[in-house]
Each structure stands twice: as C-alpha cells, then as structure tokens.
Specification:
Strand 3, helix 2 and strand 4 form a beta-alpha-beta unit. With 306 residues, this protein is of the alpha/beta class. It has a single domain, classed as Metallo-beta-lactamase, Chain A, CATH 3.60.15. Helix content is 20%, strand content 21%. Bound molecules: D-malate, manganese (II) ion (MN) and zinc ion. The site of zinc ion has 7 residues, from helix 1. The site of manganese (II) ion has 7 residues, from loops.
C-alpha cells in the first residue's frame, strides 16, 4: 500500500487567496521557511501498477493531478490512473474537485456515507450536476466495522468509522451532526498487514477512534489548528477549533497528548493544516515542539508506505 499526499492544507489552502496572516504573507514573500500547500487530498495505491483510489476531491485537483505523473499513464487518448473516489465528508475542500473530473468516460465509482450522499444531492447538489456529465455510481459506506474493497487499491482492505466532527455549513445536519457526516478510514495492506489510520477532520477521540489509532502503524490525522482559539486570536473567525470539528494540537486533551500515548513505533503525521497554524513555519517553537514529540507535518507530494 502506497499513500501519496496530493494536498496537505485545510480548506482555503496555503496561502489562502485573501489572507495576509503571518504565514500566508510569509510564504508569498519567502520570508518564512515553509512550503505552499494545496487542499486536502490523498491517493492510495495497492499492488496493481497505474491504479489509485482518490480519497477526497479538492478544488485543487487539476494541479494535484499534474504534480504526480503516475496519475496520467497515457495508455490511450483519454486516460487516468484514478479508479474510484472515496469521500470522508461533504465539505467544499473535499468534494468540489469532482466537478473538474466530469470528463470521465464512465460513471465514477464514489464511496461515501448516506449522510454525505444526501449533502451532495441536496445541500450542495454536486452529484446531481455530475449526472449531466459522466454520472456517478454510488457505493454506500456503512459504519458497521465491515471490511470493504475499493477498485484501484488492490490488496488493500478498508474500514470506515464515524468521527465526532462537523458537517459542512450547507448541511441540514450542521447544528445536529449525525453518524456518517464525517468518517475516518482504517486501511490494511493484506500482504504486509501494515495499517493506516486516516482522519483529516477529527473533533475528538472516542473509544472506537482510539482503538483504530492504536491498531495503526501510521496515523495521518487532523492537523488543522495548533490552538483552540487560533482563529479568534488572529481575528480571522469567531469560532473555536472544536466548534469547527477540529481537535487542536496544543492544550489539555489536545492532539499532542493523544499522539503521545501511542506506541513509539507508530508513525504520526499531521495533515489538513490550516494556513493560520504556526507549525507551517519550520522555524517556529510550535514546530520544534512537534519534533520533540516525534510528530511529522505532511506536505504536498509526501509519500507514505505505512
Ligand atoms: C473544514 O474542514 O472545516 C473545512 O476545511 C472548512 C472549509 O472547507 O471551509
Ligand atoms: Mn476541511
Ligand atoms: Zn493565512
């Protein structure tokens, strides 16, 4: 099983088009040590060449596809290595890239929960719009702990589990989240038995989530915010991190505390980093803190073989 990070930033990307926070202006002017990042997406490859599963379709998908040449094997006049698409939520940063994939020559196999399918047919009817182009073939993701297999990642089996987080603002469930609004994924390579935990939007760690985190060889997990009040302190929003469905890294009960409790052999990588997060500055004290805890920060183009 091979993971390639296509986009490691949260919604908005890094730098965000209208943002002049220290990080965004620093990356534009080259005055901080960092690298720009596109919005949240990974691909998963199994043991068949030229085949991948896209997990989340970001608005930056076209530049992401260009950045990884294996995704265009060029075997025929129209071609792609992407075989199916898995969505962990219905948010803009994880779904609007679907529009850019409308020229597919067959309906896209899309794996998502009934809650996300409804958000993408009612709240933001992307899937209905796609019916006028390539169409989709929906594979409902259930949260029953059953393994499933996804075309494009041969030899990998998948499980999905509910996360406490938040559906998109246009979701009818925004105020009262329901199971399946946000999921995490647990992937196992069936020959090496190596396992990956993937949850780019995680608001809290419950028993089930903890069980999967502990069982994984690599956790690729929500790195959106450093601090609970990060957006308020910068004057960017009136919302706390947890209100937005993201567990911050610092503080009591924060992500660093959880990751510290994992076995030392577990690889720990933060992904879905918001442009406001000080860990993007490789010279920040917060980034040094992560290094002390053995926690890595994902970047676009990062490859992981759990
Ligand atoms: C989130 O995960 O909270 C989203 O990235 C927000 C957004 O896309 O606006
Ligand atoms: Mn997001
Ligand atoms: Zn910014």
């Amino acid at each position: 099983m091979k993971i390639r990070v296509l986009g490691s930033a949260a919604g908005g990307g890094f730098p965000q088009w209208n943002c002049n926070c220290r990080n965004c202006s620093g990356v534009r002017s080259g005055t901080i040590r960092t690298s720009s990042r596109t919005q949240s997406s990974i691909v998963v490859g199994g043991n068949t060449a030229h085949e991948f599963v896209l997990v989340n379709a970001s608005p930056d998908i076209l530049s992401q596809l260009k950045s990884f040449e294996q995704l265009q094997p060029a075997r025929q006049i129209r071609d792609t290595a992407l075989k199916s698409i898995v969505l962990v939520d219905g948010q803009i940063d994880h779904t609007t890239g679907l529009f850019m994939l409308r020229e597919a020559r067959a309906p896209w196999p899309i794996w998502c929960t009934p809650a996300v399918h409804r958000d993408l047919t009612d709240g933001n009817p992307i899937l209905k719009v796609l019916d006028h182009y390539c169409g989709i073939e929906w594979n409902p993701v259930d949260l029953s702990d059953a393994w499933f297999e996804v075309k494009g990642a041969e030899g990998v089996r998948w499980k999905a589990f509910n996360l406490s987080s938040k559906p998109a603002p246009f979701s009818p469930n925004r105020a009262k989240p329901i199971p399946g609004d946000n999921i995490g994924l647990f992937l196992e390579d069936q020959s090496t038995h190596r396992k990956l935990f993937y949850a780019p939007g995680l608001g809290g760690v419950d028993d089930k989530v903890w069980e999967y985190m502990r069982a994984a060889d690599c956790v690729l997990v929500d790195g959106t915010f450093w601090a609970e009040d990060e957006m308020l302190a910068l004057g960017l929003s009136s919302k706390f991190a947890r209100d937005m469905g993201h567990l911050p890294q610092s503080g009591a009960g924060g992500m660093i505390e959880w990751l510290d409790r994992l076995p030392s052999s577990t690889r720990k990588v933060l992904i879905h980093i918001n442009n406001s997060n000080p860990i993007l500055d490789e010279d920040s004290t917060q980034r040094a803190d992560l290094r002390d805890h053995g926690i890595e920060v994902a970047y676009d183009g990062m490859e992981i073989e759990p």
